[in-house]
Design a protein that fits this description.
Layout: H1 3-27, H2 30-55
Helix pairs in contact: 1-2
């Protein structure tokens, strides 16, 4: 996957995971709340890759 496309994919994944996770935590039953917590944690861990890619200079 191209670096720019990969970066965009990661940013979208983090946004979707955190938003859906928060919605499940706020509006879900017990099982859905657990799934929401997992999604939020996975989204925040994925944020590490987004920040790393943003700070890494493009190869010229």
């Amino acid at each position: 996957m191209e670096p720019k496309r990969y970066d965009t994919f990661l940013r979208v994944w983090v946004l979707v995971a955190v938003v859906v996770g928060n919605a499940l935590i706020l509006f879900g039953e017990a099982t859905l709340t657990g799934i929401g917590v997992v999604l939020v944690v996975v989204g925040l861990v994925s944020l590490i890759a987004v920040v790393r890619n943003a700070l890494t200079p493009d190869p010229a």
